[in-house]
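User: Last request for today: this protein with calcium ion, please.
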Amino acid sequence: MLPALLACVLLFTGCENRDPEKTETVRVGVAIYQQNDTFISNVVQEMERLAREKEGESLLKINLSIADGQSNQTLQMEQVDRFLDWGCDVLCVNMVDRTAAAVIVDKAEEAGVPVIFFNRQPVEEDLQRWEKAYYVGPRGEQSGIFQGQIVWEQWQEDRERVDRNGDGVLQYVMLEGEPSHQDALLRTEYSIKTLTNAGVLVEKLASDTANWNRGQAAAKMSQWHQEFGSQIEAVFANNDDMALGAIDVLLEAGVAPEEMPVIVGVDATAPALEAMAAGTLSGTVQNAKEMPQVLMDLALSLYAGEDPAQAADLTAEHYVWLPYREVNRENFRSFQEE
Ligand code: BGC
Ligand code: CA
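Assistant: Here's the final one, the structure of the complex with calcium ion:
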């Protein structure tokens, strides 16, 4: 069995084993937008590990139940209903459609079950419908700024290699995440803004959504590679999976790592860090590494009826903002060791 698949099987059976010595059971319902998402499945696996760790050091039994929304908001609504019927103590929700949060907040309030949204940010008014609705995630624009900085540094240090046609303008393509995702919009905007604010002239050759997906990104990149070839001087990808999809195409076409355009992603996944070591990926941005820990801490504190401000750094009563970190050619090895 593939390791990823095995991990998922373990993940979904993890809550079955009962321990008679445990005195209290906490039920946490975790609804995710799509299980086949690299970043989200990493977050959930880490939550599962932290739950087992916490159980090991307390009398608490943590029943973490994961529901895969399969990118279908109607399905996810049913899953939330089921969690509430099951009597869950806390809900963690990674919305399929982040504009649909109001309904979930109202359902949670009616049942008196605190709800923590993560990664897919609801609009502010929806969060403000109830005091026990929270959002945990990073500020999307910061990741775009880091991407811009990484490219700017290489533009400064290695101009001859980056500006292949020597026209003083950076010709780029943009691989975007899902169209309405805050991170896709903000990364697309701020990566470029950071360069233009620094005085770099840019020219967009092409941009399109590849829905965070490696295969879809490869399909786009393959078209662009045929159309523009070595005119492409930079590839901005809203996440690492899409950056890796672009790299797949260039490797397949026989482009050597040192001949590749500057390519940047976001997430700092293990395969992305390997690509940095191989010299194909130019940089990435670590995405809210603390998210699983903060979700668990907040969920357990809400379960215990404690003041959530003691468990997490709350801003404006509803938000826990987490950091992004720039991962560049100088520091990537320290991220590999984490
Ligand atoms: C991550 C993507 C992921 C998406 C899911 C983003 O923050 O960078 O890799 O697909 O969240 O919502
Ligand atoms: Ca150029």
